[in-house]
């Protein structure tokens, strides 16, 4: 069964709103194991709506449209569906009753143009809308299903859940189930990761494995098909074990996990506290650690020591060190991490110092050069990195890297 | 000129990510007066990619694709573009040099599979990617333009701004000029703002005025059409003057201005320095102030005093104050702002303390209650706010508000 989503509305083509409807529907269809092969967006234009819907009918078995069911003149989805399917547009007493009842319940007067919403393609099933005025439409023709829902997310979602998804489940679903899991990695680039698992990627079949890079991390999406959800999960579990063996150290989490949440859970489990001394990241490490609810349990303080004065006063960095090797150096990173740990009396101290750019770089210390340090117990480890990109990217990658270094340390 | 966007990636069809790329591109095209008639989304599937791109070429003059340019086996946009346009896929020394130089700058080893990214359709113009490994492609055939960009939003946006939009402007835009300007406001909600300018909104014609609310700010997009850019600009200038008279105090900037950049410019102009004491914002105020290049000229230090201990040690907040009124209080905010200003010896001290939630609220001090203070010269001003929403939103609105309070103070 092939599905297609068509979202309708000129505001989508002007970029005035983000189309979150199609993402939501896509997720629901995936949960039900319905293959979505196409998404299309068009404006409130009759000709292009007809073209796109006709095209969809040639290649897909299920078409879900959103938008264009309102009472105004540019809401023409009803007309277009009728025309493409060669059906009459007729007044439906049932739809009229629903529109009227909505206004009565809302205690609002109904305008004449709401009457348009009671005209539907002949033989269409009416999809009740409990949240708004526009009834939805469901038509079956030549074994293909065309569903039209309003564009208001709240209304669309309720109608999908209450009517459309149960209908599709009843009518179409065979025993095949799709189950998907995202593995999140950090500390390795997309191509190096792919090289490490090249044979696994080459032999992939079921589950499929798709790498996906975003800022500071690479995800692997595993998707399995089987007759039961349990069997699909088992396929994923087996593949995941193989991947764990190869790239386990880079895997920080799954699905909706964030790196800061994973680090927070580790700190919580081990009952450890942390303090942060930031220079080039300017507060971003503290910001991310405190995005996790309950962070006051493990986050004691952060110091954004942008000036040398602040490094000396708040972190006990030695004046002589600053003079001898400069603020952007391994030694200063170490002194910052130790300093914040000792002053805050925490178990762990983190530090970042670097040149975020775009200016301030030299041949010896170029833009993107960053030193980090991690002080834990009586030990202090330090690291040198060279990141590429603009100021924000250097800050982000530095924060991502130090959080990942902390994660690895906590796992040992 | 008819444009079409094709976003590529199975993750989009599984609903795992929201397609924000196409909205961003749509907005930019609208700004340039380029008509976008279709958007399509397909997975990493050769057959359907060929079908969709071929279809697009029949009806549109400009096609922009995103995604599928990475180094891995399922990244096949290069192959598909070559096949649809009937071009050879050839190795480009220029593209190879760019990929290599990216890895060199990042001081990372390049894997063999990155070589795939150097193969481009014969005659394609290479679009430089300064943020990642995947070069973009621009091909002109039969007066139609096909642009392929990576799916990573940061990379795609930079390449659009640096290369594609200037190219389109140069090549295609005719005499009717659309000129658009965004007015950015802060410190007032969307409906209050609309009420203040209700008559102006009602009478809008050319330029049109579109309000657009986003987190912590409301924008007004003014769009004028005229025969020359100069005339369009003049129409905007006239309308802007009217708006300035009504809502001037809320306007913090225009177009790509950020609140932190505007504040940075004011600090720079007045030769003033600032230090920040953060509790509930966890480092976000420091992070934002240091996102501006050159921020070390005015940002001396930040202190994220999450614990009471840190508030006393690093900011000289009195133990008795903490005991009497609690950490989330007007008095503590004042002492934090004064403390950080005095210790850092800066002209200005900022402070935030509040309950970001989701837990930790009481009847007397609910989640979302935030106190802020601003110490300047011998004066300290404090403010109480109650924000709605989740943890991240409370943090963001607090940072936005204190930056805006600083902006207003600097203007006086």
TrEMBL record, chains A, B:
Q: Which InterPro entries match?
A: CinA (IPR050101), CinA-like_C (IPR036653), CinA_C (IPR008136), CinA_KH (IPR041424), Competence-induced_CinA (IPR008135), MoaB/Mog-like_dom_sf (IPR036425), MoaB/Mog_dom (IPR001453)
* Stretch forming the signal peptide: none
Name the Gene3D superfamilies on file.
3.30.70.2860, CinA-like (3.90.950.20), MoaB/Mog-like domain (3.40.980.10)
Chain ranges of the MoaB/Mog domain: 4-171
Recorded superkingdom: Bacteria
| Family in the record | Belongs to the CinA family.
What is this protein called in UniProt? Answer: Putative competence-damage inducible protein
């Amino acid at each position: 069964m092939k599905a297609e989503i068509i979202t309708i509305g000129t505001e989508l083509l002007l970029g005035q709103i983000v189309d979150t409807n199609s993402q939501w529907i896509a997720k629901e269809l995936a949960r039900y194991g319905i293959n979505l092969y196409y998404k299309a967006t068009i404006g409130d234009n009759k000709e292009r709506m007809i073209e796109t819907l006709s095209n969809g009918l040639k290649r897909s078995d299920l078409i879900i449209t959103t938008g264009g069911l309102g009472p105004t003149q540019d809401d023409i989805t009803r007309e277009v569906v009728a025309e493409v399917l060669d059906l009459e547009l007729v007044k439906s007493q049932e739809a009229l009753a629903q529109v009227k009842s909505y206004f009565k319940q809302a205690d609002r007067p109904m305008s004449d143009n709401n009457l348009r919403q009671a005209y539907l393609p002949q033989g269409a099933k009416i999809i009740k809308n409990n949240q708004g005025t526009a009834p939805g439409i469901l038509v079956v023709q030549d074994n293909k299903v065309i569903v039209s829902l309003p564009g208001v997310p709240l209304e669309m979602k309720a109608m999908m859940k209450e009517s459309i998804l149960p209908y599709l489940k009843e009518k179409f679903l065979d025993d095949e189930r799709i189950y998907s899991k995202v593995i999140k990695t950090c500390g390795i680039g997309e191509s190096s990761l792919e090289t490490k698992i090249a044979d696994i990627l080459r032999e992939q079949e079921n589950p499929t494995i798709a790498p996906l890079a975003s800022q500071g991390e690479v995800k692997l999406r595993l998707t399995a098909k089987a007759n039961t959800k349990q069997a699909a999960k088992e396929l994923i579990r087996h593949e995941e074990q193989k991947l764990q063996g190869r790239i386990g150290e880079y895997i920080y989490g799954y699905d909706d996990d964030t790196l800061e949440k994973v680090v927070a859970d580790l700190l919580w489990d081990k009952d450890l506290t942390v303090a942060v001394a930031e220079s080039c990241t300017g507060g971003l490490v503290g910001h991310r650690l405190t995005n996790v609810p309950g962070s006051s349990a493990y986050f004691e303080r952060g110091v954004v020591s942008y000036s040398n004065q602040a490094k000396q006063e708040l972190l006990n960095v030695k004046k002589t060190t600053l003079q001898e090797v400069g603020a952007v150096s391994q030694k200063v990173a170490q002194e910052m991490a130790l300093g914040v740990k000792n002053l805050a009396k925490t178990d762990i101290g983190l530090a970042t110092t670097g040149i975020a750019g775009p200016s301030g770089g030299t041949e010896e210390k170029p833009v993107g050069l960053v030193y980090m340090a991690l002080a834990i117990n009586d030990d202090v480890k330090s690291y040198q990195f060279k990141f590429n990109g603009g100021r924000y990217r250097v800050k982000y990658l530095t924060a991502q890297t130090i959080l990942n270094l902390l994660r690895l340390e906590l796992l040992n």
